Amino acid sequence: MQQLRPAEQLELKLHVNGVSRTCTVHPMARLLDVLREDLRLTGTKEGCGEGECGACAVMVDGKLVCSCLIPALQVQSAQIKTVEGLAPSPESLDAVQRAFIECGGAQCGICTPGMLLAAHALLERHPHPTELQIREGLAGNLCRCTGYTKIFSAIVRACEERS
Amino acid sequence: MRAYLPEYEAVSARSLVEALTLLAQNPADARGRWQPLAGGTDLMVLFGVGKLPAGRYLNLLGVGELHGIDVTPSHVDLRALSTYSDVRDHQVLQREFPSLVQAAIDSGAIAIQNRGTIGGNIANASPAADTPPALLSYDAEIELVSLRGARWLPYAEFHTGYKETKRAPDELIARVRLPRLSSQDPERQQFRHYYRKVGTRRAQAISKVCLAGTALAVGGQLVKPRLAFGSVAPMPLRCPRTEEVLAAGPLDAGRIQAAQAMLSEEIRPIDDVRSSAAYRLRVAQNLLADFVAAALTPRPA
Fold this sequence. Notes:
The structure holds two protein chains of two kinds. Helix content of chain A is 32%, strand content 15%.
């Protein structure tokens, strides 16, 4: 098999959860794979790999995106937030994470990191969301366990707790 | 099967001139010409499942000239890299081009809307795309640029067949222009917008049928109706013959039926994974009647 020529690699600099990281990757490597395999941040999950399910959702420069649809060269020097960056410290959780546990919003867990990021993006945009805004904010995240109701409840509870 | 990375080459353009210079090249090797890559919500889906053609991809997101929405008294220009989120959050578009805003809201979900671009949606040329019918219903124009210069086309002439467009390989879509009605124009009070997407669910699902319509409602008649459908032909489709039937007189049941009959000749729905030709025809005809009813409903003062 032909060896990859060095010129085809990209020196990628990222700011992930507030920490500067550098890695050498193919410019078309998916952000999802860079996070999981190069940076060993395996909290971000791969569900469909086609932008349908939201399991791989992360924040790039303050916006919710599907990391499976982003080639590395599009995130050169970007600010990335993953599920590992939500909790204020290794010993604690943020309000939404706590509410997911309290309300049974997480079961198998595969959708949970993406749900948490979508919730994070939602609450940045709408600190006191209506039910419709919650449904729309999470419409790009599929869950096959909970039936969604407990996830919506968790977000309502997190808002109550924060205010 | 996953994409095999060594088959791809990708670089980021830093300016429009740099992008157009690369697109103008015609390398003789197997990787061929540079292909534009914007928000990635179509191309990266193919890439993820190993179906994106091997070759050279040119990332456009760093090209500042292609970002932004410009408002003048006579028109709104959406530069090509305007995202669905940019569209849905824009106040002038919300007020004057609500069908386009609805199309943006109905495309994918938030994470897709944050990445997908108007230029990409048009260039990808899917007959099921959600913004093209809205753009067609507003008589949009489109600007294509290359090192050879710039040219404007009526958007209605841009799509020529299934995934075929008038964009040459060295050209980029620079912007899409929407003509505005001035606030003094008496037609502004009569102008009606309609947009409806029919799919399996609100978010993420690709349309089975989509209709964007505009018209002037004048005394029980529709003047200058414009109908544009998605997912009923090899390309996003204006239906001028059906529009003529609608515009020809008072909209009684007979005229609506005649318009529905003409529509069945004008559209070419097919059976595919998302729906059947028969269902699409029936729904398209129902949407047509719904558009007429909505356009003729008096608006609250």
